[in-house]
Amino acid sequence: MFNNRNYQTDDHEAGANKMLFGIICVTVLFFLLTMSLKSPLGALLILHTDSLKDFQLWRLLSSLLVNPSGWNLFFEMFALYIFGTIITPRLGGSKMLGLYLFSGLFGNLLWLALNWNTSYGIYGCGGAVTGVIMASAMAAPNMQLYLLFIPFPIKLRTMAIVFILLDLLLAGLTPFALLDAGGFIGGYLFMRLFLRKTVEWDMLDMAGFKKKKSSDPYIFVQDPGAPKKERKMPTREEVDRILDKLSRTGINSLTPDEVKTLEEVREQMNKK
Q1: Where do the H-state alpha helices sit in 92-124?
Q2: CB atoms within 10 A of CB 56
């Protein structure tokens, strides 16, 4: 029964990650198809205020498929991969897609609210990615991240703020900064409105970090009134499953309970 639940967990994560990689692949594909904004497809997808006045409402979301440059696309997809692999298994594929689209839509709406009388268009997935970064920090703020060129682990909420600030810095005073700022707000609102039980950290909460009993939906929480039991050593099958997950998706995808299991096994091996 225990192994069956592990297989179901792996299937859930695999299905959710397919959605994440699907978003990345579709975005890269449309970038290749719309490298020139003068292409008919690019002109059909980017967001214009005039087009909305003609009720071309699909542009509110289709503009997420057009990106300004290869460097911008690389940075956005890199951030989406790093933070998406953390939040996606927790939310599932459909909620991950909803978060991505909601954040991107909110970024576009913020830009429209402040630029309704302009004639130029806007495009890019920066707002959607920023929303995913914000959501991951709210769901797993104390998860330790190991990144290249940084020899020590960094908490996810710290790294998320760094990425968002870097994204805003790169956008500068361009209209794209409004997309990023709107996506930041959109990701926050999506978590607070639709996934409140998943939130562990709210940067607007004056009380600070809200520590919950468990940040992973698959960790069994014992009844506080029940007598405490000694933690059993994990089975060989459980260790193999965690090592397989580590090799497939990296250390950042492991839950705190899985990391603790590996640490206990390592300590046990050192004692021998």
Answers
A1: 93-114
A2: 14
Q: If phi over 0 gives left and psi between -120 and 50 gives alpha, with beta otherwise, what is residue 5? A: alpha
Burial-class residue 225 by CB neighbours within 10 Å (0-12, 13-18, 19+): exposed
**Separation of CA 50 from chain center:** 32
Distances in Å between the alpha carbon of 176 and those of 57, 73, 170, 200?
Answer: 20, 13, 9, 29
Q: Give 253-269 pLDDT, tens digit per residue.
A: 677 777 788 777 777 77
Average pLDDT for 170-195: 85
Name the one residue in this structure whose structure tokens are 């309970």: 257
Could you report the per-residue pLDDT of 124-143, keeping only the tens digit for each? 998 999 999 999 999 988 88
- At residue 145, φ and ψ (nearest 5 deg) are -110, 140
